[in-house]
User: Fold this.
Amino acid sequence: MGISIDSSFLVEIVSFLILWAILKRLLFDPMLGVLEERERRTDGNLKAAEELRNQAAALRDEHETSIHVVRRAVTEQGEESRKAALAEERQIIAASRDQAAVTLNNTRAEIAAQIEEARQRLSGQAANLATQIADKVLGRTAA
Assistant:
């Protein structure tokens, strides 16, 4: 059993090559072009998506940094406001204490003046009362 090559084999090879050339031109080349274009678009889209992810990450980091800065500023401003309120509270309390001390001193002075006035009136009345008591005890006017 041997392989014999005859003219039909050559016709088949030539027919195959002609079919291959026609299919290559009409089917294979356009299909490869479509596949290459698809791959190019896919790669381009993947690169664009990666670039957008990187931009989003950068924006997120920038946003977080901004939020951190704003929070720190708000905290510092709140602390300054609290300190200012405490200082104002201390000033108000000190002014109230000073005013209370002045009012207390004025009241004490008024009370002392009223006591002195009452003593003087009572001293005068005590002399009259003593005279009246002596007159009643003696039954006559004491001179």
About this structure: Helices lie at 7-138. The mean pLDDT is 89.
